[in-house]
Amino acid sequence: MIAYRALVLAGLGWLASGCASLEGADYGVYDEYPSFNRFSYELTDAVDDAVLAPVARGYQAVLPGFVETGISNVFANMRTMPSALNGFLQGKPQRGLVDTGRFLVNTTLGVGGLFDPATGMRLYPQNEDFGQTLAVWGWRKSRYIYLPFLGPTTIRDFPSRLVSSAMPRLILGHEYNWGVGVLDTVSSRAELLATSDIRDASALDAYTFTRDGYVQRRKFLIYDGRPPMEDLFDDFDAFDTDDEDL
Amino acid sequence: MPGKWLIGIVVLGSLSGWVRASDDVEVAQAQVTVFHEHLLTMVQRPDTSARATYIRPHVAALFDVPRIAAISLGRTWRELDEAAQAAFVDLQTELIAATYADRFGYDAAPRFSIESGEAMRAGIVVRARLDAPDGRRVTLDYLSRDGRVFNVVADGVSDLALRRSEYSEIVQRVGFDGLVADIRSRVRSMQGQSTLVPPMDAGAPDRGRGG
Question: How far does chain A reach from its first CA to its final CA, in angstroms?
Protein backbone atom coordinates (compact mmCIF):
# COMPACT_ATOMS: atom_id res chain seq x y z
CA MET A 1 0.00 0.00 0.00
CA ILE A 2 2.42 2.09 0.71
CA ALA A 3 8.88 3.01 -3.47
CA TYR A 4 12.31 4.40 -3.75
CA ARG A 5 15.37 3.71 -5.89
CA ALA A 6 17.92 1.13 -4.78
CA LEU A 7 21.42 0.00 -5.65
CA VAL A 8 21.71 -3.49 -7.15
CA LEU A 9 23.22 -5.92 -4.63
CA ALA A 10 24.43 -9.46 -4.76
CA GLY A 11 20.90 -10.67 -4.10
CA LEU A 12 21.46 -14.35 -4.47
CA GLY A 13 23.82 -14.64 -1.57
CA TRP A 14 21.61 -12.51 0.63
CA LEU A 15 18.60 -14.47 -0.49
CA ALA A 16 20.27 -17.74 0.43
CA SER A 17 20.98 -16.49 3.95
CA GLY A 18 17.32 -15.60 4.35
CA CYS A 19 16.20 -19.02 3.11
CA ALA A 20 17.05 -20.52 6.49
CA SER A 21 13.65 -19.26 7.69
CA LEU A 22 11.51 -21.73 5.78
CA GLU A 23 9.44 -22.55 8.84
CA GLY A 24 6.41 -20.63 9.99
CA ALA A 25 2.73 -21.21 9.58
CA ASP A 26 1.62 -17.63 8.99
CA TYR A 27 2.50 -14.35 7.34
CA GLY A 28 2.67 -12.40 10.60
CA VAL A 29 4.83 -9.49 11.67
CA TYR A 30 8.38 -10.53 12.55
CA ASP A 31 9.97 -7.27 13.55
CA GLU A 32 13.26 -8.50 14.99
CA TYR A 33 15.10 -5.21 14.48
CA PRO A 34 12.64 -2.68 15.95
CA SER A 35 15.20 -0.08 16.99
CA PHE A 36 16.89 0.00 13.60
CA ASN A 37 13.57 -0.14 11.76
CA ARG A 38 12.01 2.65 13.73
CA PHE A 39 15.10 4.84 13.29
CA SER A 40 15.09 4.16 9.54
CA TYR A 41 11.41 4.97 9.35
CA GLU A 42 11.75 8.26 11.17
CA LEU A 43 14.79 9.28 9.13
CA THR A 44 13.07 8.44 5.85
CA ASP A 45 9.86 10.15 6.94
CA ALA A 46 11.72 13.32 7.84
CA VAL A 47 13.47 13.46 4.46
CA ASP A 48 10.22 12.60 2.68
CA ASP A 49 8.33 15.37 4.49
CA ALA A 50 11.08 17.87 3.69
CA VAL A 51 11.87 16.94 0.09
CA LEU A 52 10.07 14.18 -1.77
CA ALA A 53 6.46 14.71 -0.69
CA PRO A 54 6.50 18.45 -1.49
CA VAL A 55 8.05 17.71 -4.88
CA ALA A 56 5.38 15.08 -5.53
CA ARG A 57 2.61 17.49 -4.55
CA GLY A 58 4.07 20.14 -6.83
CA TYR A 59 4.30 17.56 -9.59
CA GLN A 60 0.61 16.75 -9.14
CA ALA A 61 -0.36 20.40 -8.99
CA VAL A 62 1.52 21.40 -12.12
CA LEU A 63 0.89 18.48 -14.43
CA PRO A 64 -2.49 17.99 -16.05
CA GLY A 65 -4.12 14.81 -14.79
CA PHE A 66 -3.91 12.99 -18.12
CA VAL A 67 -0.16 13.67 -18.37
CA GLU A 68 0.42 12.41 -14.84
CA THR A 69 -1.64 9.32 -15.62
CA GLY A 70 0.26 8.72 -18.85
CA ILE A 71 3.65 8.86 -17.13
CA SER A 72 2.41 6.52 -14.40
CA ASN A 73 1.08 4.13 -17.06
CA VAL A 74 4.43 4.00 -18.86
CA PHE A 75 6.33 2.97 -15.75
CA ALA A 76 3.61 0.53 -14.68
CA ASN A 77 3.73 -1.06 -18.13
CA MET A 78 7.47 -1.63 -17.75
CA ARG A 79 6.77 -3.63 -14.60
CA THR A 80 4.04 -5.78 -16.12
CA MET A 81 6.27 -8.49 -17.59
CA PRO A 82 7.96 -9.34 -14.25
CA SER A 83 4.43 -9.71 -12.87
CA ALA A 84 3.54 -12.02 -15.76
CA LEU A 85 6.67 -14.12 -15.25
CA ASN A 86 5.91 -14.53 -11.55
CA GLY A 87 2.34 -15.52 -12.31
CA PHE A 88 3.72 -18.43 -14.35
CA LEU A 89 6.33 -19.29 -11.70
CA GLN A 90 3.56 -19.57 -9.12
CA GLY A 91 1.66 -22.02 -11.30
CA LYS A 92 -1.01 -19.46 -12.15
CA PRO A 93 -0.89 -19.45 -15.97
CA GLN A 94 -4.13 -17.47 -16.26
CA ARG A 95 -2.66 -14.60 -14.28
CA GLY A 96 0.54 -14.81 -16.31
CA LEU A 97 -1.42 -14.68 -19.55
CA VAL A 98 -3.52 -11.72 -18.39
CA ASP A 99 -0.41 -9.72 -17.58
CA THR A 100 1.23 -10.77 -20.85
CA GLY A 101 -1.85 -9.70 -22.76
CA ARG A 102 -1.93 -6.50 -20.78
CA PHE A 103 1.68 -5.71 -21.68
CA LEU A 104 1.15 -6.43 -25.37
CA VAL A 105 -2.07 -4.40 -25.62
CA ASN A 106 -0.76 -1.41 -23.71
CA THR A 107 2.57 -1.40 -25.54
CA THR A 108 0.93 -1.47 -28.98
CA LEU A 109 -2.56 0.00 -28.77
CA GLY A 110 -1.50 1.96 -25.70
CA VAL A 111 1.41 3.63 -27.56
CA GLY A 112 4.32 2.41 -25.52
CA GLY A 113 2.27 2.17 -22.34
CA LEU A 114 1.05 5.78 -22.32
CA PHE A 115 -2.53 4.63 -22.42
CA ASP A 116 -4.18 1.70 -20.69
CA PRO A 117 -6.70 0.16 -23.08
CA ALA A 118 -6.06 -3.23 -21.47
CA THR A 119 -8.12 -2.31 -18.41
CA GLY A 120 -11.05 -1.51 -20.66
CA MET A 121 -10.68 -5.01 -22.06
CA ARG A 122 -10.86 -6.34 -18.46
CA LEU A 123 -7.19 -7.31 -18.50
CA TYR A 124 -6.57 -6.05 -14.98
CA PRO A 125 -3.08 -5.83 -13.42
CA GLN A 126 -2.28 -8.99 -11.44
CA ASN A 127 0.38 -7.39 -9.19
CA GLU A 128 2.58 -10.48 -8.86
CA ASP A 129 6.24 -10.29 -7.87
CA PHE A 130 9.09 -12.57 -6.85
CA GLY A 131 8.46 -12.06 -3.15
CA GLN A 132 4.98 -13.48 -3.62
CA THR A 133 6.46 -16.31 -5.67
CA LEU A 134 8.82 -17.21 -2.85
CA ALA A 135 5.89 -17.15 -0.41
CA VAL A 136 3.87 -19.47 -2.65
CA TRP A 137 6.90 -21.76 -2.86
CA GLY A 138 6.94 -22.01 0.93
CA TRP A 139 8.82 -19.04 2.41
CA ARG A 140 6.04 -17.77 4.67
CA LYS A 141 7.88 -16.31 7.63
CA SER A 142 10.22 -13.45 6.87
CA ARG A 143 11.82 -10.74 8.97
CA TYR A 144 10.51 -7.23 8.49
CA ILE A 145 13.00 -4.53 7.64
CA TYR A 146 12.47 -0.82 7.04
CA LEU A 147 15.32 0.27 4.78
CA PRO A 148 16.35 3.94 4.78
CA PHE A 149 14.83 5.72 1.80
CA LEU A 150 13.65 2.44 0.32
CA GLY A 151 10.74 1.83 2.65
CA PRO A 152 9.19 -1.26 4.20
CA THR A 153 10.06 -4.73 3.04
CA THR A 154 10.93 -8.19 4.27
CA ILE A 155 14.05 -10.22 3.55
CA ARG A 156 11.91 -12.40 1.26
CA ASP A 157 10.43 -9.46 -0.62
CA PHE A 158 13.56 -7.33 -0.99
CA PRO A 159 14.88 -8.94 -4.23
CA SER A 160 11.59 -8.22 -5.98
CA ARG A 161 11.88 -4.57 -4.89
CA LEU A 162 15.29 -4.41 -6.55
CA VAL A 163 13.98 -5.94 -9.75
CA SER A 164 11.01 -3.59 -9.84
CA SER A 165 13.24 -0.58 -9.30
CA ALA A 166 15.64 -1.72 -12.01
CA MET A 167 13.02 -2.47 -14.70
CA PRO A 168 13.09 0.96 -16.43
CA ARG A 169 16.89 0.73 -16.63
CA LEU A 170 16.74 -2.82 -17.98
CA ILE A 171 14.12 -1.98 -20.61
CA LEU A 172 15.49 1.38 -21.76
CA GLY A 173 19.13 0.33 -21.69
CA HIS A 174 21.35 3.12 -23.06
CA GLU A 175 18.40 5.48 -23.26
CA TYR A 176 17.98 5.38 -19.50
CA ASN A 177 19.33 8.42 -17.66
CA TRP A 178 19.07 10.05 -14.26
CA GLY A 179 16.11 12.16 -15.44
CA VAL A 180 14.09 9.01 -16.07
CA GLY A 181 15.05 7.76 -12.64
CA VAL A 182 13.94 10.97 -10.97
CA LEU A 183 10.68 11.00 -12.92
CA ASP A 184 9.99 7.39 -11.89
CA THR A 185 10.66 8.21 -8.24
CA VAL A 186 8.50 11.34 -8.20
CA SER A 187 5.69 9.65 -10.13
CA SER A 188 5.71 6.71 -7.69
CA ARG A 189 5.66 9.04 -4.72
CA ALA A 190 2.79 11.04 -6.19
CA GLU A 191 0.77 7.85 -6.54
CA LEU A 192 1.26 7.18 -2.84
CA LEU A 193 0.27 10.65 -1.63
CA ALA A 194 -3.34 9.67 -0.93
CA THR A 195 -2.19 6.61 1.01
CA SER A 196 0.35 8.53 3.07
CA ASP A 197 -2.24 11.22 3.76
CA ILE A 198 -4.58 8.55 5.14
CA ARG A 199 -1.74 7.25 7.30
CA ASP A 200 -0.94 10.71 8.61
CA ALA A 201 -4.60 11.39 9.39
CA SER A 202 -5.41 8.00 10.93
CA ALA A 203 -2.32 6.55 12.55
CA LEU A 204 -1.58 7.04 16.22
CA ASP A 205 1.79 5.33 15.79
CA ALA A 206 2.81 5.81 12.18
CA TYR A 207 5.70 3.33 12.30
CA THR A 208 3.48 0.51 13.61
CA PHE A 209 0.69 1.48 11.23
CA THR A 210 3.06 1.33 8.25
CA ARG A 211 4.70 -1.91 9.36
CA ASP A 212 1.52 -3.84 10.04
CA GLY A 213 -0.26 -2.38 7.03
CA TYR A 214 2.63 -3.47 4.78
CA VAL A 215 2.71 -7.03 6.14
CA GLN A 216 -1.05 -7.45 5.88
CA ARG A 217 -1.09 -6.01 2.38
CA ARG A 218 1.60 -8.48 1.32
CA LYS A 219 -0.47 -11.35 2.65
CA PHE A 220 -3.45 -10.01 0.69
CA LEU A 221 -1.37 -10.00 -2.52
CA ILE A 222 0.11 -13.45 -1.87
CA TYR A 223 -3.42 -14.82 -1.64
CA ASP A 224 -4.46 -12.86 -4.76
CA GLY A 225 -6.98 -10.79 -2.85
CA ARG A 226 -8.58 -13.74 -1.04
CA PRO A 227 -6.67 -14.30 2.20
CA PRO A 228 -8.15 -16.87 4.61
CA MET A 229 -10.80 -14.95 6.48
CA GLU A 230 -10.86 -17.50 9.29
CA ASP A 231 -7.52 -16.08 10.51
CA LEU A 232 -9.19 -12.72 11.15
CA PHE A 233 -11.56 -14.25 13.66
CA ASP A 234 -8.63 -15.44 15.79
CA ASP A 235 -8.54 -12.15 17.70
CA PHE A 236 -12.16 -12.58 18.69
CA ASP A 237 -11.75 -16.17 19.78
CA ALA A 238 -8.46 -15.59 21.62
CA PHE A 239 -9.96 -12.78 23.69
CA ASP A 240 -12.97 -14.87 24.57
CA THR A 241 -10.72 -17.63 25.91
CA ASP A 242 -8.66 -15.17 28.02
CA ASP A 243 -5.50 -15.79 26.05
CA GLU A 244 -2.66 -14.39 28.18
CA ASP A 245 -0.79 -13.27 25.08
CA LEU A 246 -3.43 -10.60 24.55
CA MET B 1 -34.71 -48.32 13.02
CA PRO B 2 -33.11 -45.92 15.48
CA GLY B 3 -30.10 -45.42 13.20
CA LYS B 4 -32.27 -44.02 10.41
CA TRP B 5 -34.03 -41.67 12.78
CA LEU B 6 -30.68 -40.48 14.07
CA ILE B 7 -29.41 -39.87 10.55
CA GLY B 8 -32.63 -38.03 9.73
CA ILE B 9 -32.29 -35.81 12.78
CA VAL B 10 -28.67 -35.02 11.92
CA VAL B 11 -29.56 -34.17 8.31
CA LEU B 12 -32.51 -32.01 9.33
CA GLY B 13 -30.38 -30.30 11.94
CA SER B 14 -27.71 -29.57 9.36
CA LEU B 15 -30.27 -28.25 6.90
CA SER B 16 -31.87 -26.01 9.50
CA GLY B 17 -28.41 -24.80 10.46
CA TRP B 18 -27.72 -24.00 6.82
CA VAL B 19 -30.99 -22.10 6.54
CA ARG B 20 -30.16 -20.18 9.73
CA ALA B 21 -26.71 -19.39 8.37
CA SER B 22 -28.24 -18.11 5.11
CA ASP B 23 -30.63 -15.89 7.07
CA ASP B 24 -27.74 -14.56 9.15
CA VAL B 25 -25.77 -13.74 6.01
CA GLU B 26 -28.72 -11.89 4.53
CA VAL B 27 -29.18 -9.94 7.74
CA ALA B 28 -25.49 -9.05 7.82
CA GLN B 29 -25.56 -7.92 4.19
CA ALA B 30 -28.64 -5.78 4.89
CA GLN B 31 -26.94 -4.19 7.89
CA VAL B 32 -23.90 -3.27 5.82
CA THR B 33 -26.08 -1.95 3.00
CA VAL B 34 -27.94 0.30 5.41
CA PHE B 35 -24.67 1.57 6.87
CA HIS B 36 -23.39 2.37 3.38
CA GLU B 37 -26.56 4.34 2.73
CA HIS B 38 -25.89 6.33 5.88
CA LEU B 39 -22.32 6.97 4.68
CA LEU B 40 -23.69 8.34 1.42
CA THR B 41 -26.01 10.62 3.40
CA MET B 42 -23.10 11.64 5.61
CA VAL B 43 -21.01 12.72 2.62
CA GLN B 44 -23.55 15.44 1.92
CA ARG B 45 -22.99 17.10 5.30
CA PRO B 46 -21.06 20.38 5.06
CA ASP B 47 -18.03 19.64 7.26
CA THR B 48 -16.19 16.94 9.17
CA SER B 49 -17.82 17.76 12.48
CA ALA B 50 -21.33 17.58 11.02
CA ARG B 51 -20.46 14.31 9.30
CA ALA B 52 -19.16 12.80 12.52
CA THR B 53 -22.25 13.88 14.43
CA TYR B 54 -24.48 12.26 11.83
CA ILE B 55 -22.65 8.95 11.52
CA ARG B 56 -21.93 8.36 15.21
CA PRO B 57 -25.24 6.65 16.14
CA HIS B 58 -25.04 4.48 13.03
CA VAL B 59 -21.51 3.46 13.96
CA ALA B 60 -22.77 2.45 17.41
CA ALA B 61 -25.61 0.49 15.81
CA LEU B 62 -23.49 -1.51 13.34
CA PHE B 63 -20.23 -2.02 15.18
CA ASP B 64 -19.66 -4.03 18.33
CA VAL B 65 -17.60 -1.18 19.77
CA PRO B 66 -17.24 -2.71 23.26
CA ARG B 67 -15.76 -5.82 21.68
CA ILE B 68 -13.51 -3.74 19.42
CA ALA B 69 -12.29 -1.74 22.41
CA ALA B 70 -11.63 -4.87 24.47
CA ILE B 71 -9.72 -6.70 21.74
CA SER B 72 -7.76 -3.58 20.82
CA LEU B 73 -6.55 -3.07 24.38
CA GLY B 74 -6.00 -6.73 25.20
CA ARG B 75 -4.62 -7.28 28.68
CA THR B 76 -4.94 -3.58 29.56
CA TRP B 77 -8.73 -3.81 29.15
CA ARG B 78 -8.97 -6.31 31.99
CA GLU B 79 -7.16 -3.88 34.29
CA LEU B 80 -9.79 -1.19 33.84
CA ASP B 81 -12.88 -0.88 35.98
CA GLU B 82 -16.35 -0.70 34.39
CA ALA B 83 -16.49 3.08 34.32
CA ALA B 84 -13.12 3.35 32.60
CA GLN B 85 -14.11 0.65 30.13
CA ALA B 86 -17.35 2.47 29.33
CA ALA B 87 -15.50 5.74 28.84
CA PHE B 88 -13.02 4.05 26.52
CA VAL B 89 -15.85 2.52 24.51
CA ASP B 90 -17.34 6.01 24.08
CA LEU B 91 -13.97 7.29 22.95
CA GLN B 92 -13.63 4.46 20.43
CA THR B 93 -17.06 5.30 19.01
CA GLU B 94 -15.95 8.93 18.65
CA LEU B 95 -12.76 7.84 16.94
CA ILE B 96 -14.51 5.52 14.49
CA ALA B 97 -17.10 8.18 13.64
CA ALA B 98 -14.44 10.86 13.24
CA THR B 99 -12.38 8.59 11.00
CA TYR B 100 -15.31 7.93 8.67
CA ALA B 101 -16.16 11.61 8.63
CA ASP B 102 -12.59 12.53 7.79
CA ARG B 103 -11.97 9.86 5.14
CA PHE B 104 -15.28 10.34 3.36
CA GLY B 105 -14.82 14.02 2.68
CA TYR B 106 -15.45 13.63 -1.02
CA ASP B 107 -16.81 16.30 -3.33
CA ALA B 108 -18.75 13.62 -5.17
CA ALA B 109 -20.48 10.59 -3.75
CA PRO B 110 -18.59 7.27 -3.75
CA ARG B 111 -20.30 4.06 -4.83
CA PHE B 112 -20.75 1.03 -2.64
CA SER B 113 -21.74 -2.45 -3.73
CA ILE B 114 -22.19 -5.71 -1.88
CA GLU B 115 -20.40 -8.52 -3.71
CA SER B 116 -21.00 -11.52 -1.50
CA GLY B 117 -21.71 -12.83 1.96
CA GLU B 118 -20.40 -15.99 3.55
CA ALA B 119 -21.11 -17.80 6.78
CA MET B 120 -17.98 -19.26 8.29
CA ARG B 121 -17.45 -21.40 11.31
CA ALA B 122 -16.36 -18.37 13.32
CA GLY B 123 -18.72 -15.72 11.97
CA ILE B 124 -19.96 -13.97 8.87
CA VAL B 125 -18.00 -12.10 6.20
CA VAL B 126 -19.72 -9.58 3.96
CA ARG B 127 -17.56 -8.55 1.02
CA ALA B 128 -18.25 -5.10 -0.38
CA ARG B 129 -16.56 -2.76 -2.76
CA LEU B 130 -16.02 0.97 -2.62
CA ASP B 131 -15.53 2.90 -5.85
CA ALA B 132 -14.17 6.28 -4.81
CA PRO B 133 -14.76 9.40 -6.94
CA ASP B 134 -11.00 9.61 -7.61
CA GLY B 135 -11.12 6.22 -9.34
CA ARG B 136 -9.70 4.14 -6.52
CA ARG B 137 -11.38 0.82 -5.88
CA VAL B 138 -11.22 -0.72 -2.42
CA THR B 139 -12.38 -4.12 -1.24
CA LEU B 140 -14.11 -3.95 2.14
CA ASP B 141 -14.67 -7.13 4.14
CA TYR B 142 -17.01 -6.71 7.12
CA LEU B 143 -16.51 -9.40 9.76
CA SER B 144 -19.40 -9.91 12.13
CA ARG B 145 -20.21 -12.12 15.07
CA ASP B 146 -23.35 -12.21 17.17
CA GLY B 147 -25.08 -9.83 14.77
CA ARG B 148 -22.58 -6.94 14.99
CA VAL B 149 -19.51 -6.02 13.00
CA PHE B 150 -16.24 -6.21 14.90
CA ASN B 151 -13.74 -5.67 12.11
CA VAL B 152 -13.42 -4.14 8.66
CA VAL B 153 -10.66 -5.33 6.36
CA ALA B 154 -9.80 -2.88 3.57
CA ASP B 155 -7.78 -4.42 0.72
CA GLY B 156 -6.48 -7.01 3.12
CA VAL B 157 -5.54 -4.60 5.91
CA SER B 158 -7.40 -5.34 9.13
CA ASP B 159 -8.51 -2.29 11.06
CA LEU B 160 -8.71 -4.28 14.29
CA ALA B 161 -5.22 -5.74 13.87
CA LEU B 162 -3.78 -2.28 13.20
CA ARG B 163 -5.60 -0.90 16.19
CA ARG B 164 -4.29 -3.65 18.49
CA SER B 165 -0.70 -3.20 17.33
CA GLU B 166 -0.75 0.56 17.67
CA TYR B 167 -2.42 0.54 21.09
CA SER B 168 0.02 -2.07 22.37
CA GLU B 169 3.01 0.02 21.27
CA ILE B 170 1.61 3.23 22.71
CA VAL B 171 0.59 1.70 26.03
CA GLN B 172 4.08 0.24 26.42
CA ARG B 173 5.61 3.62 25.68
CA VAL B 174 3.35 6.13 27.49
CA GLY B 175 0.75 4.05 29.35
CA PHE B 176 -3.02 3.87 29.02
CA ASP B 177 -3.52 7.53 29.92
CA GLY B 178 -1.10 8.49 27.19
CA LEU B 179 -3.03 6.37 24.71
CA VAL B 180 -6.29 8.07 25.66
CA ALA B 181 -4.66 11.48 25.26
CA ASP B 182 -3.36 10.52 21.81
CA ILE B 183 -6.79 9.29 20.71
CA ARG B 184 -8.50 12.44 21.97
CA SER B 185 -5.94 14.56 20.18
CA ARG B 186 -6.47 12.63 16.97
CA VAL B 187 -10.25 12.93 17.17
CA ARG B 188 -9.96 16.67 17.76
CA SER B 189 -7.61 17.13 14.83
CA MET B 190 -9.98 15.23 12.53
CA GLN B 191 -13.00 17.20 13.67
CA GLY B 192 -11.48 20.58 14.29
CA GLN B 193 -12.50 22.16 17.60
CA SER B 194 -15.44 19.81 18.11
CA THR B 195 -17.38 19.99 21.37
CA LEU B 196 -18.05 16.26 21.10
CA VAL B 197 -14.70 15.50 22.71
CA PRO B 198 -13.50 17.48 25.75
CA PRO B 199 -10.02 19.02 25.58
CA MET B 200 -7.02 17.13 26.95
CA ASP B 201 -6.81 19.03 30.22
CA ALA B 202 -10.27 17.79 31.18
CA GLY B 203 -8.46 14.55 32.02
CA ALA B 204 -8.37 11.05 30.65
CA PRO B 205 -10.91 8.50 31.84
CA ASP B 206 -10.09 7.37 35.34
CA ARG B 207 -8.58 3.91 35.03
CA GLY B 208 -10.10 3.08 38.36
CA ARG B 209 -7.46 0.51 39.19
CA GLY B 210 -8.75 -1.55 42.03
CA GLY B 211 -6.68 -2.14 45.13
Answer: 27
